[in-house]
C-alpha cells in the first residue's frame, strides 16, 4: 500500500516545511515530516523569550499536535545526516527514509562571517536554547552588577551590545532597554538598572535597512527615546571576552561589555551544503542553495529547497529575503507543484507575493509596511500584534500570549524572568564552531 | 546606619525563607535574602511541568519581583559555601555576609538512600531542571518508540516506572498516565501510546501513607482506573540502565524500563550538614538539623533552621513532615521571634497548625483531608485547585495557570510538551554524586 502511494519527505518543521505539509493534507500522498526537534518554533517572537516576556511554550507547538488530524502524515523526530539523491533516500543518523519527492526546508543558523569563535562569546537568536541563554546572560549580568563593588566591572556588566540593526537587533535592543529601564527599575538596591547602557552596533547606513528610509528614521528615534545608543556605520572588528572592537571609518573603538548579542547575520543550515554536495547544486555566499524557478534543485525536479536555506532569484532579480512569508509561500508552492505533477498539470514558476514587513520597538511602538501603506507608532504595534497572534499556530497559544502581553503591557512586568540552564546550545555551538 | 540596624540574613527563597522575609516587611530590621536561583519555585506543581501541562514560568516568580516593594529587604543571588557562627558570618562562594539573626531555609533535595549512583538514571523532582529533564525523558521515549522496530525495545521505551507512592509519585504517575492514554492518544502512527505501562512502585502498605486509609484506597482505585499499575510492598533493590529490580517479600522481579523516576525520598540540603558541623548541632537520618522548640540551632538562639532541612519534634512527638505549610509557619514564627526578642518580649515555642493535605490523581480527581473532613473525587480536585491557585504568589501566575488548566482540562491538551535540553541538572547531579 505505502509503496504505491507517492512518498513526500519534508525536512524541517519551520514555516516552510509546515506549510508544505499542511498544503498536502488532502493530497493522495504519504507525508513524512522530519525534524530533530519535536516542535514548531514561532521564531519572530523569540526575542520575547530572550527578554523574559514569554515562555518557550508560548511560542512553540508540538509538531505532532499541529499535524495530529492529518492522517496521511507522520512525524519523525530524527537528525538528517546526508542525502542520497541517486537512490532517492535521506540518510538519518540512525536509519534512512525513501522518498519520491523531497522538500528540504532546514532553515538557517546564526552566521559570524567566518569568525565562528565569536559564537562562544556572542550568542545569536535562532532557537529556544539561544533565547534562554540570552535571558540567562542578561539577567545574570544585573545580578552580578548588584553585588559588584568595582565600579569599572559594574559598568561592564551593565553594558549590553547588540550587533546588527535588522529586525532582530532592533527588537532585542528595544526589549532589553525596556526590561532594564522600566520592568526592573525598582528591583535592585545597589545598582540603578536605568544606568544600563544598551548599544546597537549596525554596519549599515540606517537600522531596518529593508524598510523605507522614513520608517528607519522613526525606528531610530524610538530606540533613542527608549535609551538605546544606536551606532550606524560601525563594523565589528573583533569580539572578545568582555569587549567588542568596532570600526567607524578608520577609527577603532573598544566597547567594554560583558554581554554581547549577535544579530548580524545568518547562514544556511549545514544541510544546505550537504544537499549541494550530493546534487552538484551551487550555493551563494550565505551557503544557500541556488534553486530553479520552480524552487527545485538543478537537475533534480523531485527535490525542493525552500525558505532560509534557499537562494531564490525572484524573476531574475535580487534573491528573496530570509523571512517567514517567503518560506510559507514556497512551502505551499512546493506542495501544489508535487500535486500538479502527479496530475500531469502544468507548473508555473514560483511567484512571491510580498505581504509587507513589521518590526516592533519596545513595548508599544512598531513600524510596518503593507504594500504602499506605511505605519508607525502604536497603530503599527497593534497591527504587529494582530498579525503575529493570527499566525501563532494554536488557539491556546494565541489566547495565552495575548493575556500574557496584556498583563505585561499594563504592568511593565515580565514574569518569565527565570535564569535557567544552557543545553542544546552547546551542540549548536559545536555545529557552528566546526562548520 | 546599616551597622546599627539589626541584620537578618535568610538563606533560601522557598516557602520557609520567603514567608520569613515577608513577615519582616515592616520590622525595624535589614533583611538579606540569599538564594542561588533568582526565583521562588512553587514546588507542588512541578509535576505539571514534568508532564507538559505548565511552563516553568507559570510556577516560578522572580524573588526580586515578589520582594520589590519591601524596602528593608535586598535579594542576593549567591551560593552559600559555609557558616562562621563564632563571627556571625555566612561564607559565600565569592564573599561573605554578616548577620545578627540568621534564618537557614535551604530545603531538601532528592535522596537515594545512599545509592547516589541511581541519580544518574532515575531523576527526582525538586527543581525546574529536574522537571524539564523528566519531560524530556518521557516525551523522548515516545518519540524513540515510534521509530523502534524491535518490539522488545519498544516495550521498554513505553514502560515508565515511578518509585515512591507519596503525593509526588502519585501525582506523577497519574499525570503520565493521562498524557499517554489521553493527551497523546492520536499523535503517533506506529505505536499506540495507550499501550504505555505506568508502574508505581511503593515500599509501603498503601499509597499516600500519611493520609487516612480510606483516602489511600480511593487514590489507589483512581490510579488503577487511569491505567497505572500500583505495586505496594515492593522495595527497590537496584536501579540499572534500562531496568529496576524490585523485591516483594523474598521474591525479586526485574522491570525493564527506559524511564525511571525517583519520588521515593528526600534528604536535607548539603547546607544542613555544614551548619551542623559549624554549630555542633545533631542531624537525623535524613540529614536534617534537630532544632530547639523555638526552631533555633542548639546553643545558637540567633540561628533558625526551618522547613525541609530541619527536624522539629513537635511537642515532643513525631518530627513534622517536610511539607510547605510547616515551612511557611516556621518562617513566620522565626520572623516573629526575631522581632519579639528585639522588643524584649517573651517567646512561645513553635506550634504547628495542620491545615490538612491534598493530592491529585490525574485530570480531575483528588483526595483531601482538612481537619476531620475528608474529600475525594472532583470536589477534592476543585479544592486542590483553589488552594494551589491561592498560594501562587503572583496574580498573573494564578490567572494564567487557571486559563492554561481550563484549556488543558477541556481539550486534554498539554501544550508545554517541549523537549528541551538539560543544564543546571548536571550540577545538581554532581552535588548528589559527591554528597
TrEMBL record, chains A, B:
According to its UniProt record, this protein's enzyme class is oxidoreductase
**Record EC number:** 1.6.99.-
- One of the record's GO molecular function terms: NAD(P)H dehydrogenase (quinone) activity
Which domain of life does the UniProt lineage start with?
A: Bacteria
Taking every annotated instance into account, which residue ranges of this chain make up the domain FAD/NAD(P)-binding? 7-331
Name its co-factor(s).
FAD
Q: Which Pfam family, any one, appears in the UniProt record? A: Pyr_redox_2
Task: List, alphabetically, the InterPro entries matched.
Answer: FAD/NAD-bd_sf, FAD/NAD-binding_dom, NADH-Q_oxidoreductase, NDH2-like_C
Record keywords: Transcription regulation included?
A: no
The residue range of the signal peptide is none
Which residues belong to any copy of the External alternative NADH-ubiquinone oxidoreductase-like C-terminal domain?
Answer: 356-406
GO biological process terms on file: aerobic electron transport chain
Q: Where are the transmembrane segments?
A: 373-393
Q: What Gene3D superfamilies does its record include?
A: 3.50.50.100
What UniProt keywords are attached to this protein's entry?
Answer: FAD, Flavoprotein, Membrane, Oxidoreductase, Transmembrane, Transmembrane helix
Similarity-based family: Belongs to the NADH dehydrogenase family.
- What's the name of the protein? NADH dehydrogenase-like protein
Q: Name its species.
A: Blastopirellula retiformator
From the broadest rank down, the organism's phylogenetic lineage runs: Bacteria, Pseudomonadati, Planctomycetota, Planctomycetia, Pirellulales
Amino acid at each position: 500500500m505505502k509503496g504505491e502511494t507517492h512518498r513526500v519527505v519534508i525536512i524541517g518543521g519551520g514555516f516552510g516545511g509546515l506549510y508544505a505539509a499542511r498544503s498536502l493534507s488532502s493530497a493522495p500522498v504519504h507525508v513524512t515530516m522530519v525534524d530533530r526537534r519535536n516542535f514548531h518554533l514561532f521564531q519572530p517572537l523569540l526575542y520575547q523569550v530572550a527578554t523574559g516576556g514569554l515562555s518557550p511554550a508560548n511560542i512553540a507547538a508540538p509538531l505532532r499536535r499541529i499535524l495530529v488530524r492529518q492522517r496521511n502524515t507522520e512525524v519523525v523526530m530524527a537528525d538528517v545526516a546526508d542525502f542520497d539523491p541517486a537512490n532517492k533516500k535521506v540518510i538519518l543518523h540512525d536509519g534512512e527514509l525513501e522518498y519520491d519527492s523531497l522538500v528540504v526546508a532546514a532553515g538557517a543558523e546564526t552566521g559570524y562571517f567566518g569568525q565562528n569563535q565569536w559564537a562562544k562569546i556572542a550568542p545569536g537568536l535562532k532557537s529556544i536554547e539561544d533565547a534562554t541563554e540570552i535571558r540567562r546572560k542578561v539577567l545574570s549580568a544585573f545580578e552580578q552588577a548588584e553585588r559588584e563593588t568595582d565600579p569599572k566591572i559594574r559598568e561592564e556588566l551593565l553594558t549590553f551590545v547588540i550587533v546588527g540593526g535588522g529586525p532582530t537587533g532592533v527588537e532585542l535592543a528595544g526589549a532589553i532597554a525596556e526590561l532594564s529601564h522600566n520592568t526592573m527599575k525598582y528591583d535592585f538596591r545597589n545598582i540603578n538598572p536605568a544606568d544600563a547602557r544598551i548599544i546597537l552596533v549596525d554596519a549599515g547606513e540606517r537600522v531596518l535597512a529593508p524598510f523605507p528610509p522614513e520608517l528607519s528614521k522613526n525606528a531610530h528615534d524610538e530606540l533613542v527615546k527608549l535609551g538605546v545608543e544606536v551606532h550606524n556605520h560601525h563594523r565589528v572588528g573583533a569580539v572578545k571576552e568582555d569587549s567588542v572592537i568596532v570600526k567607524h571609518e578608520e577609527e577603532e573603538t573598544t566597547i567594554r561589555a560583558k554581554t554581547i548579542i549577535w544579530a548580524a547575520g545568518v547562514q544556511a543550515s549545514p544541510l544546505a551544503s550537504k544537499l549541494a554536495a550530493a546534487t552538484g547544486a551551487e550555493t551563494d555566499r550565505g551557503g544557500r542553495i541556488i534553486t530553479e524557478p520552480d524552487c527545485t534543485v538543478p537537475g533534480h525536479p523531485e527535490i525542493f529547497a525552500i525558505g532560509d536555506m534557499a537562494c531564490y532569484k525572484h524573476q531574475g532579480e535580487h534573491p528573496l529575503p530570509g523571512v517567514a512569508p517567503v518560506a510559507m509561500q514556497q512551502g505551499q508552492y512546493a506542495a501544489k507543484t508535487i500535486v500538479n505533477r502527479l496530475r500531469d498539470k502544468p507548473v508555473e514558476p514560483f511567484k512571491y507575493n510580498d505581504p509587507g514587513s513589521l518590526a516592533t520597538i519596545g513595548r508599544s511602538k512598531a513600524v510596518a509596511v503593507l504594500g504602499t501603506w506605511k505605519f508607525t507608532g502604536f497603530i503599527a504595534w497593534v497591527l504587529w500584534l494582530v498579525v503575529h497572534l493570527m499566525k501563532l499556530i494554536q488557539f491556546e497559544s494565541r489566547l495565552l500570549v495575548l493575556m500574557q502581553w496584556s498583563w505585561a503591557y499594563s504592568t511593565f512586568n515580565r514574569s518569565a524572568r527565570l535564569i535557567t540552564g544552557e543545553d542544546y546550545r552547546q551542540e549548536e555551538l559545536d555545529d557552528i564552531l566546526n562548520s
